[in-house]
Write the structure tokens for this entry.
Amino acid sequence: MFLRKFSPEPTPKERQSSRRQFEGSTDRRESSLADYLGKFDLSEDELRGKKVLDIGSSVQAKFASEARDKGIEVISLNPEFASERIGMKMSMREKGLAGVAALAQELPFPDNTFDREVSLHGVPGYLPEFVSEYRLAFQEMIRTLKPGGEAKLFPVSDKLAESQEFKSLLAELTGAEAGAILEELPGQGADHRYRLIIRKKKAD
């Protein structure tokens, strides 16, 4: 699901309706540890000993499961980890995995919690089509990253990356606390060539 054009800002009722719609349409693909490492240019050694948040994980949390076997701590976040899926939540606990039911726009974690945050086929693809929703999600990532921490998101569609609204939002986020950059990746399919990196600056 790729944004083609931002919509006018919603009323509170429209915002809640839009969020509910997107909550039920999260990605179903099962991406492996190798998929994450490749798309985000990471290594096992870089993640080991770090606290990692997977935003918009698959409901089976394949990445977290494989990462745990390598000594990497990953918390999986997906709105479908809700009470009606209690059987699945219990299964994750039995596997020693942490699954949290929440949205990227309202991360239920304290400030400065994570060393790395990643989203593969999650954010921004499954955010409602309003600039304010994107702003909230990115601000929450910055808030919950530790100083010196980094968030990596893939893919960012070409239409989104090249839109003036998105460019203005990234410029707005870039300042004393954090920086945001788009990277064009070689060898990607049409309309999803970009990766977004948000870095929270280290405290002076």
User: Anything to note?
Assistant: The CA atoms of residues 17 and 122 lie 19 Å apart. Helices lie at 12-23, 33-40, 44-47, 62-69, 86-94, 131-144, 158-161, 164-173.
